[in-house]
Specification:
- It contains 21 helices and 16 strands.
- By secondary structure, it is of the alpha/beta class.
- The protein has three domains: about 120 residues, Enzyme I, Chain A, domain 2 (Orthogonal Bundle), CATH 1.10.274; about 90 residues, Glucose Oxidase, domain 1, CATH 3.50.30.10; about 270 residues, Phosphoenolpyruvate-binding domains (TIM Barrel).
- The strands form two sheets. It has an eight-stranded mixed sheet with strand order 1-8-7-3-4-5-6-2. An eight-stranded parallel sheet has the order 15-14-13-12-11-10-9-16.
- The chain starts with a strand and ends in a 5-residue tail after the last helix.
């Protein structure tokens, strides 16, 4: 038995037999053509393009049937790239002008296009690099008349093993037999990770060597919540994970089953110390909403609508359809929609216009929405039209000033007036508190909005100048940095004085240590992703409020992350029973 660790990108437990899918690309050589051979080579390339298009259309139809148009649009973008003159046209010109074989022309053109993206840090743009590479690989297979190695039809419980999941790989897989993914590379933001989550297929990436260490036919357990893959597990391990598979939605599942929270018979506060909401990025995330036991949708990220699509392709009707479904799923509770939090660097038609050296601090969030008013107006109108039940709320991201909020509100009012929808207003409005400047103007912002959403991910990285997407070479307790804590205290005091609601929507609320910190500061509303619900619920039901006050007082005396980390580890048993505390330390690989 061997356990491999990586990054869980789609939660859940899957068991099945490994099937290695290796692209197995043939070597590409440069072959000089005689002038009279060029027309035949162009026909050979055109035939490969036609076969590739047909295969992608098959995947497109499958995704639209299973998940809806918003996901099949990712494949549509592949087809558009394939048909684009800058791609296929450039390859044809290379074949003709250089008198070279189609394989070599595909290699040269695709590598040139990939160099545009390879040096960029943004995750969305890196996915574009993978899109081009995926299309080129499939073209090369079709030019050579080959298909990727790996027969996914030999088992009815397939765990796909490959270096990286490509969108076109779905054309080789029978979804009825697909149980999970275990791959060497890829991340949370990739199109296929999003699709895996939508299909409820557990997936683990960043395993680095799984395609080398695992063989077709090996029995695997894929823990998409804990980010682990167990190869040829023993009977005891299989039974333990089968028990986790059987947990009802909203209960302790995945690695949190190890915490045995449901077995704790200590008296539970009624009600819990704080309200628990769910974060979602896809409508499918809420299909089992009724069984989750949450107070509402604390944050719905709308960016998925824009993945791989031009901004002007998303209509008011499409926005309305998605948000109406969201409102129906959450009713009678509220659902908070964050307007698109994209950067100009993620929109091809704007990339050259802005030339931003640091896109994370550039034209993004509400700044970009105000700049791209037509796209912003379509989204706002879609939200207004979808709010028949009156339970939708709207949040503006990446706000740094009162001016931005007032401008956004004026646009919203104008949209409602021009669409004759004034009767649907006022719509409860909020802003994301995620830029340090908002710490100091929260009182002024409170005069403009109805509530706040605390975005701890960006707030922490901008406060301590540490990229949250980079390798974590800083302390594991960076979110408890004294500067972050003091900023949180200022935010809470400002919001409390104005009588406004605030919900913590970032990853701090999903981590038991930092959830304790947020509680100690005074926050009482928390929104987390679905896999983190059981643990967050357990913390809220079992933490001792007087102990939090003492913990806060002790934290306030400390000025180093090392001392803060030691305090967390020392005080953990005071908040939770010993088995729970021990398992938390093991789960987060920390030592007292």
């Amino acid at each position: 038995m061997k356990e491999l660790t990586g990054q869980g990108v789609s939660p859940g437990i899957a068991m099945g037999h490994a099937v290695k899918v290796d692209p197995g690309l043939p070597p590409v050589f440069k072959i000089r053509l005689r002038p009279d051979d060029i027309p035949a080579e162009l026909r050979r390339f055109d035939e490969a393009v036609a076969r590739t298009t047909a295969q992608l259309q098959q995947v497109e139809a499958m995704l639209e049937h299973e998940l809806g148009r918003q996901h099949s649009a990712m494949i549509s973008a592949h087809i558009l790239i394939l048909q684009d003159d800058h791609f296929s046209g450039a390859i044809r010109r290379r074949i003709a002008a250089d008198a070279v074989n189609a394989e070599w022309a595909v290699k040269v053109v695709s590598e040139h296009l990939q160099t545009v993206y390879v040096g960029l840090q943004d995750a969305y743009l890196r996915e574009k690099l993978h899109d081009i590479a995926d299309i080129a690989d499939r073209l090369l297979h079709n030019i050579a008349g080959r298909i990727p190695n790996g027969n996914t039809k030999q088992y009815d419980d397939v765990i796909v093993i490959c270096p990286e999941i490509s969108l076109s790989l779905f054309s080789e897989i029978n979804l009825k037999h697909l149980k999970g993914f275990a791959v060497d590379f890829g991340g949370w933001t990739s199109h296929t990770s999003i699709i895996a989550r939508s299909l409820n297929i557990p997936a683990v990436t960043h395993l680095k060597a799984v395609s080398a260490e695992v063989h077709t036919g090996d029995f695997l357990i894929v823990d998409g919540s804990g980010g682990a893959v167990v190869v040829n597990p023993d009977r005891e391990t299989i039974e333990r994970f089968r028990h986790q598979q059987g947990q009802p939605a909203g209960e302790v599942s995945g690695p949190y089953c190890l915490l045995e929270a449901r077995g704790d018979d200590r008296p539970r506060p009624t009600p819990a110390l704080g309200a628990l909401y769910i974060n979602a990025e896809l409508p499918q995330d809420l299909d089992d909403y009724a069984g989750l036991g949450v107070a509402g949708v604390g944050l719905f990220r709308s960016e998925f609508l824009y993945l791989g699509r031009p901004l002007d392709a998303i209509t008011v009707a499409e926005h309305e359809s998605v948000y109406r479904r969201l409102a129906e799923q959450a009713y009678p509770a509220t659902a908070n929609i964050r307007t698109f939090d994209l950067g100009a660097d993620k929109i091809p038609q704007l990339r050259e216009q802005f030339h931003e050296t640091n896109p994370a601090l550039g034209m993004r969030g509400i700044r970009l929405s105000i700049f791209l008013q037509e796209a912003f107006r379509r989204q706002l109108e879609g939200v207004i039209r979808a709010n028949d039940r009156g339970n939708l709320r709207l949040t503006f991201p990446f706000v740094s000033s009162v001016d931005e909020v007032r401008t956004a509100k004026a646009i919203l009012a104008d949209v409602a007036a021009k669409a004759d929808l004034q009767h649907r207003l006022p719509l409860p409005l909020g802003v994301m508190l995620e830029i340090p400047s908002t710490i100091f103007i929260v009182d002024a912002l409170a005069e403009e909005v109805d509530f706040f959403a605390l975005g701890t991910n960006d707030l922490v990285q901008y406060t301590v100048a540490h990229d949250r997407n980079a390798s974590p070479d800083a302390s594991a307790f960076a979110p408890a940095h004294p500067a972050v804590r003091r900023g949180l205290e200022m935010i809470f005091a400002g919001v409390r004085d104005k009588g406004k609601e605030v919900i913590c929507c970032g990853e701090m609320a999903a981590h038991p240590f930092f959830l304790l910190l947020l509680l100690a500061v005074g926050f009482r509303g928390f929104s987390v992703n679905k896999p983190a619900l059981p643990l967050a619920r357990y913390v809220l039901r079992n933490v001792d409020e007087p102990a939090l006050a003492h913990f806060h007082a002790e934290l306030s005396k400390l000025s180093t992350l090392d001392a803060i980390g030691r305090l967390f580890l020392e005080r953990l048993p005071e908040f939770f029973p010993e088995p729970f505390a021990d398992t938390l330390l093991e789960l987060y690989q920390l030592h007292a």
